[in-house]
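Final report, Chapter 2: Outcomes

The project's central promise was a pipeline that accepts a single protein chain and returns its three-dimensional structure in a standardized token representation, suitable for archiving and comparison. That pipeline is now operational. To close this chapter, we reproduce one record exactly as it appears in the project archive, with the input sequence first and the structure output second.
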Amino acid sequence: QVRLVESGGGLVQAGGSLSLSCVASGRTFSSYTMGWFRQRPGKEREFVAVISWSGGNIDYGASVKGRFTISRDNAKNSLYLQMNSLRPEDTGVYYCAAEGGLYWGQGTQVTVSS
């Protein structure tokens, strides 16, 4: 069992930045592929970014590529998402997930004002 807890969400103006964190319990974090997903108002949950267990393989959703950066620190059981050049359409609840959705965090709200 893995427990995931996100933090770092908040309110920011368009063009600003936010950094999200996700801390995992358990000793198997370093073996998991980890990802960020989001659910924007009135929309389905969607893929944002993914990182392999070693950090050697990374991919992003088309709408965030070039603006967001995913990273991890296995020694700290932590996953990060640096979000730059934020847009109002980035508003939503951001979730971290392990192994493609085997485990989910509770989510953290990101609101970008225009």
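Archive annotation: The longest strand covers residues 18-24.
This record, like all others produced under the grant, will remain available to the consortium after the project formally closes.
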